[in-house]
Backbone:
């Protein structure tokens, strides 16, 4: 395989400042997002397994869905309401020769979370791998501008949904199962403009470590992935123009990651190659992870 300078694999800032309405769309983002469509090659590491991925319509979620499918797994695609993006993820999974199930709904609502879990189990008979990836984020320059309602909404989607899905999915998981939660560099190095989001990501890392010691009693591993800046529709739909323009420029790579660069870590944590790994948080931060 020909090696390449990792700094030059993808476009560097400045990025387009074109704003989107939250939660954003893959169709409108520029530069385009790479989910691994032309690069990810599976080797059967997840052959025959059944997976549920939240926030799988776009960004990291879509890249993980694509990678899982090319590794041989069926994928339940949980998403909010971005039907066009979700259909594209479905197409990629089916194109890989695996089953795909679309499950729309706001997992910040208790009843929807239970429904998503049950639909995924009913579709495949069981779930072997749960990826809690969906997230809500907003940026504020002033602490006083964060409303109580939005702070609570951030926790409902980022933390409570993860908690409820784990409660619903774990009891039916067999030994060898895996739960993977999406944390963030914000878990360890929080930005003052992302107080609500950053605090939920810190909670996710703590939750992961605590749950791991319980879940392993039934042979299930629980880990987290903590990405740094990743170019997804969430960025131009939730951050100010000046931050979008220079997004990722402060990493040692001088650019943001693409979801295609994050997905292989999820594959590793879902596969038997990580059989002795639990309670861990894997940083993919472009050299930013605090020591």
Residues:
């Amino acid at each position: 395989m020909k090696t390449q300078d990792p700094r030059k694999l993808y476009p560097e800032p400045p990025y387009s400042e074109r704003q989107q309405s939250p939660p954003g769309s893959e169709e409108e983002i520029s530069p385009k997002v790479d989910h691994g469509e032309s690069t990810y090659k599976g080797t059967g590491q997840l052959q025959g397994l059944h997976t549920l991925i939240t926030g799988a319509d776009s960004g990291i979620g879509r890249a993980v869905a694509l990678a899982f499918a090319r590794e041989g797994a069926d994928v339940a695609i949980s998403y909010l309401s971005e039907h066009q993006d979700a259909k594209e993820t479905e197409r990629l999974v089916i194109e890989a020769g695996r089953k795909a199930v679309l499950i729309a709904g706001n997992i910040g609502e208790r009843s929807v979370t239970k429904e998503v879990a049950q639909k995924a189990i009913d579709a495949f008979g069981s779930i072997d791998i749960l990826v809690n990836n969906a997230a809500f984020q907003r940026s504020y320059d002033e602490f006083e501008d964060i409303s109580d309602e939005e702070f609570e909404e951030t926790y409902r989607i980022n933390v409570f949904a993860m908690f409820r899905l784990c409660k619903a999915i774990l009891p039916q998981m067999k030994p060898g199962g895996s739960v993977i939660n999406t944390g963030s560099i914000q878990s360890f190095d929080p930005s003052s403009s992302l107080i609500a989001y950053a605090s939920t990501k810190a909670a996710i890392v703590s939750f992961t470590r605590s749950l791991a010691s319980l879940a392993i009693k039934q042979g299930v591993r629980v880990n987290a992935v903590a990405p740094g800046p990743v170019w997804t529709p969430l960025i131009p739909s939730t951050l100010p123009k000046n931050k979008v323009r220079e997004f990722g420029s402060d990493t040692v790579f001088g650019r943001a990651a693409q979801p295609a660069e994050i997905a292989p870590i999820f594959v590793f944590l879902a596969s038997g190659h990580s059989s002795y790994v639990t309670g861990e948080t894997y940083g993919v931060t472009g050299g930013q992870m605090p020591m």
In short: Residues 45-284 form a domain with the Rossmann fold fold (CATH 3.40.50.720).
